[in-house]
């Protein structure tokens, strides 16, 4: 079986099983346990090192009633590989074990749009999807997923892939959730970042993918995962989403005290 080894274990998150379990559990401990889980169609979760954004991601994972089949969309930070790269077989490894790829679901997605192509290069060194897996491994034993890495700055591509995802999900008997991995504005001061973050957050909460794309471009919001987030919103809307909520918003400055040069993080849920 083809195994994708961890690329950022020991860097973005702890490298040993024991220390990683403790680190993830500490992230969950930073948020109050919700009274009840809430159903979810799609979500946005951050992907910085767990010491910075882990508490924001954990707030979403604690609240969302996630199914055991997932489509996880991430940006392409490295520029390597195909612009809409999918892994269709094998597993991804973290210190907590291996997570199987849902090959049947991957094949169905590839059959629905020619934009998706099987490509391991785009995923090989990409951290933004990998850092989601330890959270999921702690709360969802035996889940499967389809990894998709998106890097084309074209709204029509995001729309086509989002609609293809929705069509495939509608045809499946088991529930499937769509996660988009994204941080928000990068490396400006706290006030600028909060202002730019809010521009993007408002459009996600309005479930308006085209306006999200517009404000990111027009106001120079350095939201690295706006393509996956746009794609998720297109899919969620096509699947009948009627609501969205901000679960948690923070910056790196809230962790390290440096408010002059921060990165924004938000977790948001679409249902």
What features would you describe in this structure?
It is a single chain. With 271 residues, the protein is of the alpha/beta class. It has a single domain, classed as Protocatechuate 4,5-dioxygenase, Chain B, CATH 3.40.830. Helices cover 41% and strands 23% of the residues. The protein is built from 11 helices and 14 strands. The strands form 3 sheets. Strands 3, 5, 6, 9, 10, 11, 12, 13 and 14 form a 9-stranded mixed beta sheet that branches. β7 (91-94) and β8 form a beta hairpin. It is globular. The model has no long low-confidence stretch (mean pLDDT 97).
Provide the β-strand percentage band. Answer: 15-25%
Number of strands: 14
N- to C-terminal distance: 35 Å
Largest sheet: 9 strands, mixed
Q: Could you name the CATH homologous superfamily? A: LigB-like
The level-1 CATH class: Alpha Beta
Assign the CATH architecture.
3-Layer(aba) Sandwich
Indicate the percent of residues in helices: 40-55%
Which structural class do you get from the secondary structure elements? Answer: alpha/beta
The topology string of helices and strands comes to EHEEHEEEEEHEHHHEHEEHHHEHE
| Oligomerization state | single chain
Stretches with pLDDT under 50, minimum 5 residues = none
Can you give the mean pLDDT? 97
**CATH topology annotation:** Protocatechuate 4,5-dioxygenase, Chain B
């Amino acid at each position: 079986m083809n195994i994708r080894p961890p690329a950022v274990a020991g860097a973005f998150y702890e490298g040993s099983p024991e220390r990683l379990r403790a680190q993830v559990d500490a992230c969950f401990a930073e948020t109050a346990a919700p009274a009840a889980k809430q159903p979810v169609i799609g979500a946005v979760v951050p992907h910085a090192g767990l010491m910075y954004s882990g508490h924001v991601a954990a707030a979403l994972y604690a609240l969302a009633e996630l199914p055991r089949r997932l489509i996880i969309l991430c940006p392409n930070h490295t520029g390597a590989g195909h612009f809409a790269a999918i892994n269709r077989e094998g597993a991804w490894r973290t210190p907590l074990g291996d997570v199987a790829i849902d090959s049947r679901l991957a094949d169905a997605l590839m059959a629905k749009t020619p934009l998706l192509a099987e490509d391991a290069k785009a995923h090989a060194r990409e951290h933004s999807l990998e850092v989601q897996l330890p959270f999921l491994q702690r709360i969802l034993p035996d889940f499967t997923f389809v990894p998709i890495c998106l890097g084309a700055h074209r709204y029509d591509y995001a729309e086509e892939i989002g609609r293809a995802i929705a069509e495939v999900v509608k045809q499946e008997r088991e529930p499937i959730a769509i996660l988009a991995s994204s941080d928000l504005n990068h490396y400006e001061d706290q006030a600028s970042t909060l202002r730019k973050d809010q521009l993007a957050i408002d459009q996600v909460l309005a479930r308006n993918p085209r306006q999200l794309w517009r404000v990111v471009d027009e106001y120079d919001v350095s939201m690295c995962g706006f393509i996956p987030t746009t794609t998720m919103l297109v899919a969620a809307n096509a699947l009948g989403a009627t609501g969205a909520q901000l679960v948690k918003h923070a910056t790196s400055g809230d962790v390290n005290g440096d408010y002059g040069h921060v990165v924004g993080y938000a977790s948001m849920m679409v249902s």
